[in-house]
Design brief:
By secondary structure, chain A is α/β, with parallel strands linked by helices. Chain A has 19 helices and 12 strands. In chain A, a hairpin with a 3-residue loop joins strand 10 and strand 11. Chain B folds into 2 domains: 242 residues, Rossmann fold (3-Layer(aba) Sandwich); 99 residues, 2-Layer Sandwich (formyl-coa transferase, domain 3), CATH 3.30.1540.10. A 6-stranded parallel beta sheet of chain B has the order 3-2-1-4-5-6. In chain B, strands 7-8-9 form a 3-stranded antiparallel beta sheet. Classes of the chains: A alpha/beta (405), B alpha/beta (428).
Chain lengths: 405, 428
Amino acid sequence: MNTLPLEGIRVADFTWIGAGSFTTKLFADFGADVIKVESSERLDALRTSPPFRDGVAGVNRSGYFADRNTSKRSITLNLKTENGRALARQLVGVSDVVANNFSPGTMEKFGLGYEDVRRVRPEAIYLAMSMQGASGPDSKYLGFGLTIGALTGLQFLSGLRDKEPAGTGTNYPDHVPNPCHAAFAVLAALRYRAKTGQGQFIDLAQTEPMISLLGPAILQFTANGTVTERTGNERLPMVPHSVYPCAGDDQWIAIAAWTDEAWETLAHTLGKSEWLRADVATIELRIAQRESIDENLALETRRWNAEELMATLQTHGIAAGVVRSARDVVVDDPQLRYRDHWAYLDHPEMGRCLYNRPSFRMSDVEQVPRGPAPLLGQHTDDVCRHVLKLSESDIAALRSEGVLT
Amino acid sequence: MQATSNLATENLTTRAASHDSALGGLRIIDMSGLAGQYCGKMFADLGADVILVEPPGGSPTRRDGPFLSAQAHHEMSLAFSYFNSGKRSIVLNLDTAGGQMLLRKLVSKSDLLIESERPGVMAARRLNYDSLVSEFSNIVMTSITPFGQTGPYAHYEAEDITLLALGGLLSLGGYPDTEPIAAYGNQAYLAAAQFAAVASLMALFANESCASPRGRHIDVSIQECVVLGLENAVQFFDLENVIRRREGGLQKLAGMGLFACADGFIYLMAGGIASSGFWENTIRWLEEEGVPRAGQLRQSSWSDHNYLRTDEAKSRFERIFAPFAQEHTKDYLYSNGQEHRIPICPVNTPKDLIENRQLSYRGFFSQVEHTFSGRNLTVPGAPYHLSKTPWRSPRASPTLGQHTAEILSELGLSSEAQSALFKSRVVG
């Protein structure tokens, strides 16, 4: 098998919870040796977050944690002890990337701030991904994915105009914008280091990538003076463009058929030639009558099974997609199955359970993720022996001192 | 665009290397549409030379709103000018042999090709990966498509909303009593652009830092990019057989959710992840504020996670907290709640973001010129600060074909050859 693109890169991973862990997972899956520094004294909150294998809580049983920590190694190191901090510095000294997503000041308290790291490892790339950045009036404020969604404008912009903002229903910035931006920045810095030998400090505020993605709404205000409002599923000039009910309980289909050609095809396919009237023949006219168009379309879609309607519309070249639940994407979707998106990996405590594969295939890379999430401290001895080069007696002593917990 | 410019004497190699930046020296061909334009922007903003290859008439992204002064003109799209700032534009008709030959010439001087044509289109032009790599052995090609290059849905039509649907995220968006509601702003396309950027840079880094570089094809499925945004919902199904649903407007747990205030909404996380301390802090804050019945939140029932899930707990919490929230502004609740170490945040509007003191402190918003109107636009700036190789405020987005002659000159084409290409409409 070919070598993976990040083979030879070591990450001292102090991240926890959502966005940080997902960032380093991207590296681990593609070959980096990611050593997750944990402690039973201060657990990664995702280890204690549901869902759990069989609904039974336990630090090695969370599916949320597992999916975000594939292919990594875990060591337990009590950073409240002097020797624990010394070992962490030793690990940093043999790492290429040092990553954390704590509030500003936390790593400094452990003697692991950028200045400390630079002293032992000048060429390290130091990734700090706090909520609002390393400094500034609100930099010490608390937050998580959901509050970040609110802070960035994503929540305000998503939902119905006459109801409260709905957002995405998830901690969206944690899952895509922050991990992807952080990973991109680190890779760019690794490239620069390969050319110049120099490391650097990366300060990523977990609000800013999401706001960057909302550029058009920002410009609508700064250039045109208009505050973008929520529009539900309406995206003018695309009409029709919405989510329509299908037969059965809570079954829906998204349809976008807004060009003249798509609109005519839609009308013919649904047997509604009366929709080809002159008064809705152009997009301008359909925009003016969008409410009645949506109502009439919903009356038709209700008669259909969602899967059959999607297949029929797609046969005629109309963009349509069944609203799949988290169950449906696993059980029903033939494309995800064809792409082998779902990996079933064997975890020492959870057994065989479901993981995401990456959303892209690289032509020369097979078998990603490389392994399941680690047990808490599963690789402590391994890393002490082979990375930190400690003797068996040193390891035993550190363990009895409560450093390796 | 006229073929008269002979000013572009700088050749392609020196141009790319002249930037002292993280990605200086990389040349990228960006022929992607809505789903890839942000990927090219991420490269351009860190110093890569990104060449936007547009079809005659311009990229479809030029027709995507909002528009400056609401003028639906291909040079007035604000979305285009934001997502394409820092790139250079060349108009190439890739459905002609001449256009295909020029693209191959460009590929010969490039590190990465990003494209988002439907599967099969590039092969028909003999510009697919297998064809390119046989000539340019180290090329990285990133193809972004709705469902990936092959499979039962590979030729399905798609828009952002149908991909949010088939990727599952739409099932979590919106309110229990309405249809599912899609996230604002082409998030499926943007998710794909971001994963494409990470994958592409990983491949480029590997090529540059190993002894034996090689070509790589990266096949990005937008549907799968959406699936990665499902949080823990898939694991909830796999491990606990629970199917998460949309719950907009509801508290997730008592004390965790959206509340109306005097000038909008705030998001409060008094309960939830690692929350015991936040609950205590919330009670202390509410008592200091003299909120009636705040002390009731100390009753032992509130420490039971299962109780916090009940409708009774949620409505009890709401009766205590909502009247207080409604009397105060977002700003007041944010500052005072945070002073009490509670994760509480305003639901910011775009206007709030422009006025936000933390973003101002960080100098987050940046200026970019808009060539066609002559105006300066205020845009989101650096999404990350790299101490040695800072993000730079980009050049203006290109007008259609602005750099066609310049790039042809860099490819070594004489002005006679260029004139012929313009005349035959192979370039524009």
